[in-house]
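Appendix B, Record 12. Input sequence as logged:
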Amino acid sequence: MIPIRDGAPDRRTPGAFAARVLAVAAATVLAGAADPAARAPSPRRGEDLYVGAARLSAGGAPCLGCHGVAGRGLARAASFGPDLSGAFAQYGADGLDAVLEDVVFPSMAPVYRGHPVAPDERADLVAFLAEAASAPPAAPTGRLAAGIAAAAVAFLAFVVLIGRRGGRTAARRGEQS
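Logged structural output:
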């Protein structure tokens, strides 16, 4: 028998109560996952967004397309926009968040029009720029030294090859005279 309360079936039975508790718990978990404040900003995720290893959710261009960060190697040496190594010191967390939320720079407006940076992405990018501002410049890696050495060897081989051909050509001209 279903108990009646105030002229309607009483839905406070143990089974109905358990179902409501589970529904509220699931909604809370899902809301927390969608809420940017539910997780701490991640400098690693910010770096991935900055360099384009992770895509911005609205499809905007990665920062590295135009901006470099000093001391982060050749891969981060873009030159269209200013270097952002000191951006955190200049604007602070709130200033950077505001700039990323409402892009005011004329060169950036067409790139991000219709592609807003999401709040959690802004928080991650600000965390990365804060970390980049406080970190000492990275020393050149072994890959950089190996690349420079390989380029030098290739250049010397080219010079030697041209030198040998030039000597043969001069000797042939002497024979024809």
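The mean pLDDT is 76.
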